[in-house]
Design a protein that fits this description.
Belongs to the LysR transcriptional regulatory family. By secondary structure, the chain is an alpha/beta fold. The protein has helices at 5-17, 20-27, 31-45, 61-88, 101-118, 134-140, 201-212, 226-234, 281-298; strands spanning 50-52, 57-59, 93-99, 122-128, 145-149, 157-171, 183-184, 193-196, 220-223, 239-243, 256-261, 266-274. A hairpin with a 4-residue loop joins strand 1 and strand 2. The chain starts with a helix and ends with a helix.
Length: 301
């Protein structure tokens, strides 16, 4: 059985008009074409759908039973078409993105606020998490994107570099090292150090550099959260190293940031995506707008 939408529309039009002539006008087809569609539908169903009278046609009993179903099918098709148009025209949709807390606070949340002002029908879901969990969550869950440090990435994840900043030294407000415009890594060695967890990409990148420079701190506090690092530095419990964008957090207001030299250590931030995951129109739009937003920010526009 191969019933078409044209046949169903013809059937409903004749049932509602009560005659072929008016139904043909309503559908903008010839009466002979309309009659052919009804005959094809009757042939497909094996049912006589109308009783023909001199001036009008009346639904047969099987036709009455089919009418409700035909209307529902056509309504569902129209709803599907409307929904598809809304998706492609960005009137509705859903996007999900995973990120660490600092990039979420400093970059994504302000951008999402702007994006949703322009596209209120698109729902954006932000999942803040430890950076080391982003790739695993992209592989295991229906998440469109991740934003984070491009480090130790599996082959299943593709990365689009979006920005780069540098690791900087974080000092309490009245610390003697604040007198320097730039700080050497070895300048930190004689002070208590507050380290990010060795499980995090940032913590591991910092530790690799410290190991390469053969720097060993006499006292080390290892913590998991950026906000804990900032609070400990602010209260004079030690020095720390974090990416420059950490300055944008409210908790960093009373902390002095100084560039690190000998060597300068860059940090690459990338937009991450599962290679096999296709993007819906809303997600494609979000990606394009986010990349443009980051480019404007870093070009001073």
């Amino acid at each position: 059985m191969n019933i078409t939408l044209r046949q169903l529309r013809a059937f409903v039009a004749v049932a509602e008009a009560g005659q072929f002539t008016q139904a043909a006008r309503n559908l903008h087809v010839t009466q002979s074409a309309l009659s052919m569609l009804i005959r094809e539908l009757e042939s497909q169903t094996g049912l006589r759908l109308f009783d023909r009278h001199t001036r009008k046609v009346v639904l047969s009993e099987p036709g009455q039973e089919l009418l409700g179903t035909a209307r529902r099918v056509l309504a569902e098709v129209e709803e599907a078409v409307r929904h598809s148009k809304e998706l492609t025209s960005h009137q509705r949709g859903r996007v999900s993105i995973a990120s660490g807390t600092v990039l979420s606070s400093s970059l994504l949340i302000p951008f999402i606020a702007l994006f949703q002002q322009r596209y209120p029908g698109i729902r954006v879901e932000l999942l803040d998490m430890a950076e080391q969990d982003i790739s695993r969550r992209l592989e295991q869950e229906p998440i469109d994107f991740g934003l984070g440090t491009d480090w130790n990435r599996p082959d299943t994840i593709e990365a689009h570099p979006v920005m780069q900043d540098q690791y900087q030294a974080l000092l309490p407000h009245h610390h003697p090292l604040t007198a320097k415009a730039q700080i050497r890594w070895h300048d930190l060695a004689t002070h208590p150090f507050i380290a990010l967890s060795s499980h995090s990409p940032l913590g591991q990148a910092i530790q690799r550099q410290l190991t390469a420079l053969d720097i060993r701190f006499a006292q080390v506090h290892e913590v998991s959260l950026h906000t804990t690092v900032l609070s400990m530095v602010r209260h004079g419990l030690g020095l720390a190293i974090l990416p420059a964008n950490t300055q944008s957090l409210p908790e960093a207001a009373q902390i002095i940031f100084r560039p690190l030299k000998a060597p300068v250590l860059p940090r690459q931030v990338s937009l991450l995506q599962l290679r096999q995951r296709s993007l819906a129109p809303a997600a494609t739009l979000f990606r394009s707008e986010l990349l443009a937003h980051i480019k404007r920010q870093h070009s001073g526009g």
